[in-house]
Design goal:
The structure holds 2 protein chains of 2 kinds. Chain A has 9 helices and 2 strands. Chain A is mainly α. Chain A has 2 domains: 100 residues, no CATH class; 90 residues, no CATH class. A two-stranded antiparallel sheet of chain A has the order 1-2. The longest helix of chain A is centred in the middle third of the chain and has 30 residues. The radius of gyration of chain A is 21 Å and the shape is globular. The relative contact order of chain A is 0.12. By secondary structure, chain B is of the alpha/beta class. Chain B contains 18 helices and 21 strands. In chain B, strands 3, 6, 7, 8, 9, 10 and 11 form a 7-stranded mixed beta sheet that branches. A 6-stranded mixed beta sheet of chain B has the order 17-18-19-14-20-21, sandwiched between helices. In chain B, strands 2-1-4-5 form a 4-stranded antiparallel beta sheet, covered by helices on one side. Chain B is globular. The two termini of chain B are 21 Å apart. The chains are: A mainly alpha, B alpha/beta. The interface between A and B is large, with 57 and 72 residues. Chain B: One of its GO terms (cellular component) is ATP-binding cassette (ABC) transporter complex.
Chain lengths: 226, 510
C-alpha cells in the first residue's frame, strides 16, 4: 500500500472536496474535462484498487449524461455543438467528484477511518457515522459480486447473455443483497454492543495517526515500549 | 459467575426455543453444553451472554439470568458485556470489514485503553493464538477457521470473566483445534468461567470439566465430563453421535466410469510469496464414488472449488466433465454438472421460496415452480428430507440447519453428475447424519460422484471410501481412506489420524 493510500482519511476528504469544488467552479468545458482526465490518470498511477470496475460505471454515467443533455437541449433548439459542450462539462464534473470519493472508499478501510476519527477525538457518534458511511459501501459491493457468483454457482447463465437479460439478473440480486445488508447491520450492531462501543466515551486507537495512518506491528511496539 | 435459573424462551416464528434451562458456571470451570441442531444451544448461549434479551427480544422469556450477580435484563450494559467474551457459531455474524489488528483492538479502543498497553495486549494475543501470519489481513478475506481464531482473540482481548463459545471448533482443522484447546487450557482463561456448546464434543474433551446435555430445549443435570464420556446411550438420547463414535466402514462400491477429471490445475490466485495457491492439482471422480478431501485451513480447498466452478481463474490445467473438455465452459454451464453446497447455504440462495429454489436447481430457470412435473418432483424430494411443510417458506427464513438440508435437496433434485459438499454441518447430530447418509446413498444409486470437503476426519473416515489430501498446492495423497491416514501425504499435515474407540486420556488442566 502506497503512502497516498495510507493518507489520513480527513486529508483524503479535504483533497476530495477541493477537487469537487474546483470541478464545479471551472466554467470552461475543456478545463473540466482536463481536470477529470487528470484525476483518473492519477488514480491509475497510484494503483487504486478496483479502478477498472469504477471506470466501467463512470463510462455508463458519461454516456447517460451526454445523451440526456444532448436530447434535452436539442429539443429546446440549442445548437448541437453547444449541447455537446454542456454535456461534457456536466459529465466531467460528475466524473471528477465520483472519482475523488471512489478513491477514498477504495483505499480507506473502516479501521483506518476509526483510527483517524479517534485520534481527532471526534465524538463517537461522528466516528461511527463516518466509518459506516465509507466502510459499508465497499462491503455491499463485494456482497453484490458474491451473490453474482452464487447465481453462477447455481447454474444461472449471467455471463453469456444480452445486456437486458444481464440487467434483469442483476436486479434479481436485490433480495439477497437486502438480506445480506440486514445481516451486516446486525453483525455491526452486535460488534458495537459486545465490544463496548459507547457514545459517551471517546476512543483510543492502536494505530499511529498523523498525515498518514500507519499500522505498527504490535509485537514490534511491544518490544520497544517501556 | 453465570447463573441461569428455569429460563424459558419462545420466538414468534418458532424454532430453537428453550423450554426449561438451568445452568451454573463458576469461575475457573469449563462447561460444555451438548445437543442436536435445533435443541436450543444458541438460544441458551444468547441468554448466557445477555444478547437475549438486550439485543434480541423473543416473544416470551421467563426465568433469571445473572452474570457476576448482575441480572442481564436490567443491569448496565457495560456491567454485562464488559465481563463477557463471545464468539458466535456463525462467526460472520459478528465480523465486519476490519483488519485482524483492528478487530482485536476494537473492544480495547472503545474502553479507551492507552495505545501502548493496547498494542502490548494485541501482541500477546496475536502471538498467543499464533495469528502472526494473518497480520494485516482483512478478517473477511480469511478462511473460516482463521476467522474463528481471529474472533476468539477479539473476545479475549479485555480478559473477560465469562467466555462463551458457540460451536468453537466449526471450520477449524485439527491443528487449529489443538491450538484452540491449548488456549482454552492455558493461562489466558485460567480464572475465567468458560461456557461452550458443541454438537461434536470429541475435540473439546480435554478442555471440558462439566457437560450439560440439552434436549428439546430442556437442560439435563450437569455431569462431570469424565463420567458422561463413555455413556454412548446418553449422547444418543440427546440426539448426537457419541464422542467415541466408532464409524462403520463405508461400503466400497465398484467404481463406475469417470465423470469428472482435473489435470495440472494451477490457480491464478497467488500467495504473498507469488506462488499460486494451487500449483498442480490432479484427480478424477468416478460414478458412484464418495471421496473425502482434507487440507489445512488456508490450504486452498475453497480456491479449488471456486476454480472448478470457474468462479476463480485457472492459470493452467484441464477440467474434464462427462468426457468433455470443460475449460471454456461458462461457470453456469459447469455448475449444471457440479452441484455445489457451501458451508453457509444462505450465500447461494436467491429465490423467494423453497419450491422455487428447488425448481431452479432442476431447470436453471426462474419461475418454474408451478410446472406440474417440476412441482411433483419438488414435493417428492422435500418429503424425503422432512421439509414438506416448507415448500412456500422463504429460504432466508429457514434455520441454518434447514438451509443445509435444502442444499442437499437442491443437489439431489438437480441430478448433477458431481456434487461438492464444503464442510457439511449435518454430520454430527443423528438426524443430520441421517439426511447426509440418505443423500450419499441416493448419489451412489444414481451413479453420481460426491466430493466431500471437511476437517471432520471421523466423518470422512466413516463416509468416504477414498481420500484426497491437498497440501502445498498439490494432491499429496489419493487412495483408499484407511491407507490415507498412514500415508506420507497425510503425515505431512501433522494431524492425528481418527482413532475410533480409543479416546485420548483427559489431561489435567495446565
Amino acid at each position: 500500500m502506497t503512502a497516498i493510500h495510507r493518507a489520513n482519511f480527513f486529508l483524503k476528504i479535504g483533497v476530495g472536496l477541493v477537487l469537487s469544488t474546483l470541478a464545479w467552479l471551472i466554467p470552461e468545458w475543456w478545463a473540466g474535462a482536463a481536470l477529470s482526465a487528470l484525476v483518473l490518470i492519477t488514480l491509475w498511477l497510484v494503483g487504486t484498487p478496483g479502478l477498472r470496475g469504477y471506470l466501467r460505471g463512470a463510462a455508463l454515467l458519461v454516456l447517460l449524461v451526454m445523451a440526456s443533455w444532448l436530447v434535452n437541449l436539442s429539443i429546446q433548439g440549442v445548437p448541437v455543438s453547444e449541447a455537446l459542450t454542456t454535456g461534457i462539462k456536466l459529465a466531467s464534473r460528475l466524473v471528477t467528484t465520483t472519482a475523488a470519493f471512489f478513491f477514498i472508499m477504495a483505499t480507506t478501510s473502516p479501521g483506518a477511518i476509526l483510527a483517524a476519527c479517534s485520534a481527532a477525538r471526534l465524538p463517537p457518534i461522528a466516528t461511527l457515522t463516518l466509518s459506516l458511511l465509507f466502510g459499508v459501501i465497499p462491503m455491499l459491493q463485494e456482497d453484490f459480486a458474491r451473490i453474482a457468483d452464487a447465481q453462477r454457482a447455481r447454474g444461472m447463465e449471467i455471463d453469456e447473455v444480452g445486456f437486458l437479460q444481464r440487467l434483469r439478473f442483476a436486479l434479481a440480486r436485490g433480495v439477497p443483497l437486502l438480506v445480506q445488508a440486514i445481516r451486516m447491520a446486525h453483525a455491526i450492531s452486535l460488534t458495537l454492543e459486545l465490544g463496548g462501543f459507547d457514545l459517551g466515551r471517546k476512543r483510543t486507537t492502536w494505530r499511529e495517526v498523523g498525515l498518514l495512518v500507519d499500522s505498527p506491528s504490535p509485537r514490534h511496539v511491544q518490544e520497544n515500549d517501556p | 459467575m453465570l447463573t441461569i435459573e428455569n429460563a424459558a424462551v419462545a420466538y414468534a416464528r418458532g424454532g430453537d426455543a428453550l423450554e426449561r434451562a438451568s445452568l451454573d458456571v463458576s469461575s475457573g470451570t469449563r462447561h460444555l453444553v451438548c445437543g442436536a441442531a435445533g435443541s436450543g444451544k444458541t438460544t441458551l448461549l444468547h441468554l448466557a451472554t445477555g444478547i437475549i434479551p438486550r439485543l434480541i427480544t423473543p416473544e416470551r422469556i421467563s426465568g433469571q439470568v445473572r452474570i457476576g450477580g448482575a441480572a442481564t435484563a436490567t443491569a448496565d450494559a457495560e456491567a454485562i458485556f464488559g465481563r463477557v467474551g463471545y464468539v458466535a457459531q456463525s462467526v460472520e455474524d459478528q465480523l465486519w470489514d476490519l483488519s485482524l489488528e483492528d478487530l482485536i483492538a476494537f473492544p480495547l479502543e472503545n474502553r479507551a485503553v492507552p495505545p501502548a498497553r493496547l498494542r502490548e495486549r494485541m501482541g500477546e494475543l496475536i502471538d498467543g493464538l499464533k495469528l502472526r501470519p494473518l497480520s494485516g489481513r482483512r478478517v473477511l478475506t480469511l478462511s473460516g477457521g482463521e476467522r474463528r481464531m481471529a474472533a476468539l482473540a477479539a473476545a479475549l482481548a479485555t480478559r473477560p470473566d465469562l467466555v462463551v463459545l458457540d460451536e468453537p471448533t466449526t471450520g477449524l482443522d485439527p491443528e487449529a483445534r489443538a491450538r484452540l484447546v491449548a488456549v482454552l487450557n492455558g493461562p489466558e482463561l485460567r480464572n475465567a468461567a468458560l461456557l461452550m456448546s458443541a454438537q461434536d464434543p470429541g475435540s473439546l474433551r480435554s478442555c471440558t470439566d462439566i457437560v450439560t446435555l440439552l434436549s428439546g430445549g430442556t437442560t439435563n443435570a450437569p455431569e462431570r465430563a469424565a463420567t458422561l464420556w463413555p455413556e454412548d446411550d446418553r449422547w444418543r438420547a440427546a440426539g448426537i453421535l457419541p464422542p467415541r463414535h466408532a464409524p462403520s466402514p463405508p461400503p466400497a462400491p465398484e467404481p463406475g466410469a469417470e465423470v469428472f477429471g482435473v489435470a495440472g490445475l494451477a490457480s491464478m490466485l497467488a500467495r504473498n510469496d507469488g506462488q499460486p495457491v494451487l500449483r498442480d492439482v490432479g484427480f478424477s471422480l468416478r460414478a458412484g464414488e464418495v471421496v473425502g478431501l482434507v487440507g489445512r485451513n488456508g490450504a486452498g480447498k475453497t480456491t479449488l472449488i471456486r476454480t472448478l466452478l470457474r468462479l476463480a481463474q485457472a492459470r493452467h490445467g484441464r477440467i474434464i466433465l462427462g468426457g468433455q473438455d470443460a475449460g471454456e465452459w461458462s461457470p453456469a454451464r459447469r455448475a449444471r454438472s457440479i452441484a455445489y453446497l457451501p458451508q453457509e447455504m444462505r450465500r447461494i440462495l436467491f429465490n423467494m421460496s423453497v419450491a422455487e429454489e428447488i425448481a431452479f436447481a432442476m431447470t436453471a430457470k426462474s419461475g418454474m415452480a408451478r410446472d406440474p412435473d417440476v412441482a411433483a418432483r419438488c414435493s417428492e424430494v422435500l418429503a424425503r428430507y422432512g421439509l414438506a411443510d416448507h415448500a412456500e417458506t422463504n429460504p432466508f427464513a429457514l434455520s441454518a440447519r434447514q438451509q443445509a438440508v435444502l442444499g442437499l435437496v437442491c443437489a439431489e433434485a438437480a441430478g448433477a453428475p458431481v456434487a461438492v459438499l464444503d464442510e457439511p454441518l449435518l454430520g454430527r447430530d443423528i438426524a443430520g447424519r441421517a439426511h447426509l447418509e440418505r443423500f450419499l446413498r441416493t448419489a451412489r444409486e444414481n451413479e453420481r460422484a460426491v466430493l466431500m470437503v471437511s476437517h471432520d476426519l471421523e466423518m470422512i473416515d466413516s463416509l468416504c471410501p477414498r481420500l484426497l489430501v491437498l497440501d502445498a498446492g498439490r494432491i499429496t495423497f489419493d487412495g483408499p481412506t484407511r491407507d490415507g491416514w498412514s500415508s506420507p501425504g497425510f503425515g505431512a499435515l501433522n494431524w492425528p489420524a481418527p482413532a475410533p474407540g480409543t479416546p485420548a486420556p483427559v489431561p489435567e488442566r495446565a
